[in-house]
Amino acid sequence: MTGEKQRFGQKERREKRIQNSRRQCHCCNQTFMFCWRCRCGFAMCQACMHENAWGLTCNGITWTCPDCGAQNGYGNQ
């Protein structure tokens, strides 16, 4: 029975971790597994980031958070 409890606990932790990794896009209000996030909590999905990149970046390497103005990397360096 302890093996069954352990498997249930692992499944529960995995589901909680997946649920915590989902973010809601501040632009389209949909929930995604991956969002570009700023340290202030602002999150934007890939589609919205691609659509709004013209106003968020000037060099394609970093993007500026519209909420706090902090510089964030695209991760392509």
Provide a short characterization of the protein structure.
40% of the residues lie in helices and 18% in strands. It is an alpha+beta fold and 77 residues long.
Main sheet attributes: strand count, strand direction, barrel closure: 2 strands, antiparallel
**What is the C-alpha radius of gyration, as a whole number of Å?**
17 Å
Instruction: Provide the number of structural domains.
Output: 1
Mean pLDDT: 81
Secondary-structure element series: HEEEEHEE
Oligomer: single chain
Low-confidence stretches: none
> Into which percent range does the helicity of residues fall?
40-55%
Structural class: alpha+beta
Number of helices: 2
Q: Tell me the strand percentage band.
A: 15-25%
Shape: elongated
Sheet with most strands: strand arrangement: 1-2
Number of strands: 6
Alpha-carbon distance between the termini? 49 Å
How would you characterize the overall build of this protein?
The chain is α+β, with helices and mostly antiparallel strands and 77 residues long. The chain has one domain (24-77). The chain has helices spanning 2-21, 46-56; strands at residues 23-24, 31-32, 36-37, 43-44, 62-64, 71-73. The strands form three sheets. A two-stranded antiparallel ribbon has the order 1-2. Strands 3-4 form a two-stranded antiparallel sheet. The chain has a two-stranded antiparallel sheet with strand order 5-6. Strand 3 (36-37) and strand 4 form a beta hairpin. The longest helix has 20 residues, at 2-21. The relative contact order is 0.14.
